[in-house]
Design a protein that fits this description.
The protein is mostly helical and 347 residues long. It has one domain: Formate dehydrogenase/DMSO reductase fold (Up-down Bundle), CATH 1.20.1630. It has 13 helices and two strands; from the N terminus they run αααααααααααββαα. It has a two-stranded antiparallel ribbon. The chain is globular and about 55 Å long.
């Protein structure tokens, strides 16, 4: 049962990477959109895209934390005791990001909106960076087993953690730009479709370069994970690379739906490759999944809860996203009719 719970944990992590990662990536494009005048339209599209779903995306993070805490309590204790600094920054960033995103819409003064917009954008970079740094600390074996605390600084300020943080930010930006192409198209705004398509192409290349460079970092500083990536997890690495390259080709051909699916495959492939490469350890190379697992009764209860969630919660989230993609939810932050001025076709 420990293996099954570990799979459930990585399902939640993958979902958060695919949905929450794009959510944070939208904040990156908000940050680099430019001044109030030049960045008004891109930010309106971002608000329209993020508004209906940004709170739902955090369901996956909460679920992953609950599974880790309940199913693998020793690993949870070690991770939180060692990495309390970046985890605190993550919690602070999520709160500030959500508050600034919600409240800036109710303000009318440009200066006040800029302050909250800056908090939203900076937090959108801080949170995924710290999460990537936490993943790097775990992968490089800097979190000790036994529910003990490791070094609070060198554990997440090291080459693997820095690489993980940068990769998380770039991958989120890549996902967000691909998703935003679709949202701009729904708003009938050709100019914004081209705007985000160009940025998606650049972000895809940058994310690919960072991922490639990360392999060499892992070779020098996280040998167990590197060996796993080049052996048992190699098919997933290849799948991620193929999906990433495929998304580039589809973006160049303006096949936005296919590019979105390929981008999801590329990111999910990275997450699962990490998990398979790290197997059978939850904390390489000191704590195996079987040794870290809670009693069998607890694991069985977790699997039952997961089954209930799959039946009740997942369809609800799917309905939310379906209604959003079909523009059946209340508009937030943009008037869809405004985009029609940027389009040269009639329905």
């Amino acid at each position: 049962m420990a293996d099954a719970v570990a799979v459930v944990l990585f399902v939640a992590v993958s979902a958060y990477a695919v949905f929450g990662g794009a959510d944070f990536g939208a904040g990156f494009w908000d940050l680099v959109a430019g001044g109030a005048a030049r960045g008004a339209r891109p930010r309106a599209v971002i608000d329209h895209s993020v508004g209906p779903v940004w709170e739902a995306n955090h369901v996956w993070l909460i679920f992953a934390l609950v599974v880790l805490w309940t199913g693998f309590p020793e690993a949870f204790a070690s991770i939180t005791l060692t990495l309390f600094v970046p985890l605190t920054l993550v919690a602070l960033g999520i709160v500030l990001r959500g508050a600034s995103f919600a409240f800036r819409k109710s303000l009318f003064r440009t200066a006040e909106r800029r302050v909250l917009g800056a908090i939203f954008a900076v937090s959108s970079i801080l949170v995924p960076y710290c999460m990537g740094a936490v993943a790097g600390a775990i992968a490089s074996g800097r979190v000790p087993a036994g529910g003990k605390a490791g070094d609070p600084w060198s554990s997440w300020v090291n080459p693997v953690s820095i690489m993980g943080g940068v990769l998380a930010v770039t991958v989120g930006a890549y996902l967000a730009s691909v998703y935003l192409i679709w949202d701009a198209d729904r708003l009938a705004d050709d100019a914004m479709v081209d705007y985000f398509r160009r940025r998606a192409l650049v972000a895809a290349v940058v994310a690919g370069v960072v991922a490639l460079a990360g392999i060499f970092v892992l070779r020098d500083d996280a040998r167990h994970v590197f060996d796993g990536l080049t052996s048992r997890a190699l098919p997933l690495v290849v799948l991620s690379a193929v999906c990433g390259a495929g998304s580039l080709v589809l973006l160049l051909r303006s096949s936005h739906r296919g590019a979105r699916l390929a981008a999801v495959g590329a990111v999910a492939g990275i997450v699962w490759a990490w998990g398979v490469a790290q197997w059978p350890y939850v904390l390489p190379t000191s704590l195996k999944v079987s040794a870290a697992a809670a009693p069998s009764a607890t694991l069985a209860t977790l699997l039952v809860v997961f089954g209930v969630a799959a039946v009740v919660i997942v369809p609800s989230i799917a309905l939310l996203f379906t209604l959003d993609q079909r523009s059946l939810l209340p508009e937030e932050g943009v008037d869809a009719r405004a985009g029609s001025r940027g389009r040269g076709r009639t329905a």
